[in-house]
TrEMBL record:
Organism ancestry: Bacteria, Pseudomonadati, Bacteroidota, Bacteroidia, Bacteroidales
Key words of the record: Membrane, Transmembrane, Transmembrane helix
Species of the source: Bacteroides muris (ex Afrizal et al. 2022)
PANTHER family noted in UniProt: AT30094P, SPHINGOSINE-1-PHOSPHATE PHOSPHOHYDROLASE
Protein name: Phosphatase PAP2 family protein
CDD domains: PAP2_like_4
SUPFAM superfamilies with a match to the protein in the record: Acid phosphatase/Vanadium-dependent haloperoxidase
Domain Phosphatidic acid phosphatase type 2/haloperoxidase: 68-183
Stored InterPro entries: PAP2/HPO (IPR000326), PAP2/HPO_sf (IPR036938)
Residue ranges crossing the lipid bilayer per the database entry: 32-55, 62-85, 116-137, 144-162, 168-187, 199-224
Gene3D superfamilies in alphabetical order: Phosphatidic acid phosphatase type 2/haloperoxidase
Length: 226
């Protein structure tokens, strides 16, 4: 038992050191960029583009099953982290004032998040969506974009000081499991089979890319106005 506790403490120390290293690399431009990128509502156009691809390619009943499936993925991933795991693990966020390392953490606009951060619901939700989209369409560049989008979201949570890397890794696993389970149920209910050709498949990449460009422009303008 002592050896196990020592190994766990070493893992926690490594996690903390990696967090402090990444969080310590910051500047004013990325303060604006990461804060905006980490927002939920800014990505609504990209979500709408994913829905658009479904509507253009699937029967309305399959599209409805997709939307229900996505809602289930997000709900399961989010609640598994927030309701089932966090209250029992009770790992303080790095930026939480009760955390001994909080004075060393770079935060943006006073944002510290809730009290506990293990696992990361942002990681669970974004990777849950990314994995479900991967399972659904099986298209290389859309998968690459969605995974990159989710990965940068995770990086932004470390940058903002509200999650350790370990929080994000476990959150990603939660998102993967939720997406896989719901996708298997979706296949049984809808009878869906992967399509070889999916017209308009690049719409989410285009809209998501434009959103990132918009965030870059916003961050630049804020720097110039400062």
């Amino acid at each position: 038992m002592t050896a196990l506790m020592d190994a766990l403490q070493r893992a926690i120390d490594i996690d903390t050191n990696i967090f402090l290293f990444i969080n310590g690399m910051h500047n004013t431009f990325f303060d604006y960029f990461m804060s905006a990128y980490s927002g939920k509502w800014v990505w609504v156009p990209m979500y709408a583009a994913i829905w658009y691809v479904m509507l253009r390619n699937f029967h309305w009943k399959v599209t409805l099953c997709c939307m229900v499936g996505l809602a289930l993925v997000i709900t399961i991933a989010d609640q598994t982290g927030a309701t089932l795991i966090r209250p029992y693990v009770e790992r303080l966020r790095p930026a939480n004032l009760e955390n001994p390392i909080s004075d060393m953490v770079h935060i943006v606009n006073g944002y510290r998040g809730g009290r506990y951060g293990f696992p990361s619901c942002h990681a669970a939700n974004t990777f849950g969506l990314a994995f479900f989209v991967w399972f659904l369409f099986r298209k290389r560049w859309l998968t690459v974009f969605m995974m990159g989008w989710a990965l940068l979201t995770c990086y932004s949570r470390i940058y903002l000081g509200v999650h350790y890397p370990g929080d994000l890794i476990v959150g990603t696993l939660v998102g993967l499991i939720a997406a896989y389970i719901v996708y298997r149920l979706f296949l049984k209910v809808s009878g869906y089979k992967t399509m070889k050709k999916v017209p308009h498949i690049y719409a989410p990449i285009l809209v998501g890319g434009l959103t990132i460009v918009g965030i870059l422009i916003y961050s630049t303008v804020m720097i110039l106005q400062a």
